[in-house]
Amino acid sequence: MPVATGQIRDASKRGLFIATDYTDVQLNQTVELEFRFPDRKEKAFRRLKAQVVRKSDQGLGVDLEGLDNDGFTISALLSWLQKHNHIVSYFPPIRQNYFH
Fold first, then answer.
1. What CATH number belongs to 7-83?
2. CB-based contacts of 41: which residues, under 8 Å, 6+ apart?
3. Where does this protein have coiled-coil stretches (predicted)?
4. Out of 33, 38, 39, 99, which residue is the most buried by the measure of CB atoms under 10 Å away?
């Protein structure tokens, strides 16, 4: 299973835009997003499922609705991003190595 990195650039209760240079995904493909809150003592990762609804040179737009997701996790992510001002205009992501 491919693994890629990215940075959230825009977020709403419905979906996210993730800046990434990873392009090996298709529209309507279901992907799994894994993240953790860097400033919290808990080191556990959270997971959300998303459907790819947009692809561009800057990244991917994903829809969180209609999939089996925990509403609390989505709310916690949105609150954290807003509190830490991590919703910013696009800057190219740092190129990462991808592991298969």
1. 2.40.10.220
2. none
3. none
4. 33
Cα separation of 59 and 79, whole Å? Answer: 22
Residue 3 DSSP one-character state: B
Q: List the structure tokens of 50.
A: 């998303």
Phi-psi region of 77 (alpha: psi -120 to 50; beta: other; left: phi over 0): alpha
The burial of 7, by beta-carbon neighbours within 10 Å (0-12 exposed, 13-18 middle, 19 or more buried), is given as middle
Taking only the tens place, the pLDDT of each residue in 45-82 is: 899 999 999 999 999 999 998 888 989 999 989 888 88
**Position 36 confidence tier, pLDDT thresholds 50, 70, 90:** confident
Give the tokens for residue 22: 């990873």
Give residue 55's Cα distance to chain centre.
Answer: 13
Domain segments of the chain: what residues?
7-83
Kindly state the average pLDDT of the residues 28-34.
Answer: 94
